[in-house]
Write a sequence for this structure.
């Protein structure tokens, strides 16, 4: 959905976006990006924007558009919040974690709202969908200014973000919706599972081993050994 908000408001969100130094830098062979989820540290309008997507009428409307019986917003921002990617930063192909932080609800939708003005598709930092697997060319969705993308999440919703080729930052406000039922009847529990790109053969093998190890741990420790710090509780 393009031109989601009035342009002046979308620009205001971008102008208030925190610098990388004010966010968590997640850098590994899986990804390289900045994330922000402690919303009380940033301008109030950013927190307001995130939780606007969690208003009951908004959740109901998006659920209806996506033909979901019911969806629940994630007030804890489990992996949601703000993200920023600059020159050469990337997000490798992956499946999102199938559940919420308590492993009680299924993750069913990913909402991505892009707020960087004049961001061209050639700059990179675009969403890539791999519906036919890594052997086929991905579908590229331009991270266009003031565009909302809603993506289903299930055990075959492989996606990535292309490396940024521009000396600027692609900024995004993200939310997840959960449900008591999985998006697809055949969905099974899985951790966030990364893969290498088609030309990254060795990296792909390492990432598959990494996923297998983490899945093995979760079979023993249901919620993991260490609690995920990417959780936020909004003040009343």
């Amino acid at each position: 959905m393009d031109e989601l908000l009035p342009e002046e408001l979308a620009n205001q969100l971008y102008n208030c976006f925190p610098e990388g130094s004010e966010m968590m830098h997640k850098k590994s062979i899986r990804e390289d990006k900045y994330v922000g989820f402690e919303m009380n540290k940033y301008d109030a309008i950013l927190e307001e924007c995130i939780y606007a997507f969690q208003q009951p009428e908004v959740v109901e409307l998006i659920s209806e558009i996506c033909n979901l019986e019911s969806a629940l917003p994630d007030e804890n921002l489990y992996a949601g919040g703000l993200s920023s990617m600059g020159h050469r930063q990337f997000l490798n192909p992956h499946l999102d974690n199938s559940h919420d932080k308590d492993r009680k609800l299924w993750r069913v939708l990913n909402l991505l709202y892009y707020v960087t003005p004049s961001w061209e598709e050639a700059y990179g930092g675009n969403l890539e969908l791999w519906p036919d697997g890594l052997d086929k060319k991905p579908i590229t969705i331009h991270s266009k200014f003031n565009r909302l993308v809603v993506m289903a999440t299930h055990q075959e919703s492989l996606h990535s973000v292309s490396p940024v080729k521009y000396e600027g930052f692609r900024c995004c406000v993200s939310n997840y919706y959960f449900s008591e039922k999985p998006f697809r009847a055949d969905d099974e529990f899985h951790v966030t599972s990364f893969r290498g790109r088609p030309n990254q053969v060795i990296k792909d093998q390492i990432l598959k081993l990494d996923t297998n190890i983490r899945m093995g741990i979760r079979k023993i420790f249901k919620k993991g050994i260490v609690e995920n710090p990417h959780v936020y509780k909004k003040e009343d």
User: Anything to note?
Assistant: The longest strand covers residues 170-179. The chain has four helices and twelve strands.
